[in-house]
Design brief:
Elements: H1 7-17, H2 24-36, H3 38-55, E1 57-58, E2 65-66, H4 72-75, E3 80-87, H5 90-99, E4 104-108, H6 126-133, E5 140-143, H7 149-162, E6 168-171, H8 187-195
Parallel strand pairs: 3-4, 3-5, 5-6
Antiparallel strand pairs: 1-2
């Protein structure tokens, strides 16, 4: 492809290839579609990217991405301030909002503790979480972190740090998903579902 395309196209392909879910081949396909549809797709996308780069920032309270600080969620007076859901990143917050299951507040950690990657407590927004959890309104902190080794390590660390602040610390239930077939589930999910069983 390098011999058939100029440096501008190669740079576009390289940048697109770095996006999650896209590799070099998908990056080439995406670049080709953008170049074929410059006026309908490429120019509006470039404008949206520029606006987002200039205006979107992290909320100083919760860490969510928005064009205002505090973000729309933190500024919403109708939200339940007694329940604070902790997520790894903004994608987790968006997933919770999409579900419509939580109408409270959030705290975005900005990652997970990971000894292998050199991510320690000082690299995450943990102190801000402790300050918020120790506030007058918060009664419960829900740890909505991934069911991975790093997610579990982070959950245990946070649960210990939150002890003594006078808040209930809970985590999301894990197990068989709605509509899930046992034959398709991994062993860890089945084990967790069995341990977390409840009366029928």
């Amino acid at each position: 492809m390098a011999a058939a395309a100029g440096p501008e196209i190669e740079r576009l392909i390289q940048l697109l290839s770095k996006l999650p879910g896209l590799g070099p081949r998908s990056g080439r396909r995406a670049a080709l579609q953008l170049l074929k549809r410059k006026d309908q797709l490429m120019r509006p996308l470039a404008e949206a990217l520029t606006l987002a780069a200039d205006r979107v920032r992290a909320c100083s309270t919760c860490g969510a991405l928005d064009t205002s600080d505090p973000c729309a969620i933190c500024a919403d007076g109708t939200r339940d301030g007694t329940v604070l859901v902790v997520v790894e990143d903004v994608g987790g917050l968006w997933a919770m909002e999409r579900s419509g299951a939580h109408r409270g507040r959030y705290h975005v950690l900005g990652g997970l503790l990971s000894a292998l990657d050199g991510v320690g407590p000082d690299d995450l927004r943990i102190e801000g979480l402790l300050q918020r959890a120790g506030g007058q309104d918060v009664a419960e902190v829900v740890l909505a972190l991934p069911a991975t080794v790093d997610g579990q390590t982070t959950s245990h660390y946070l649960a210990e740090r939150l002890t003594g602040l006078g808040v209930a610390v809970t985590s999301l239930a894990r197990g068989v998903p709605v509509g899930g077939d046992l034959d398709w589930l991994d062993d860890g999910t089945i084990n967790q579902a069995l341990r977390a069983r409840r009366p029928a």
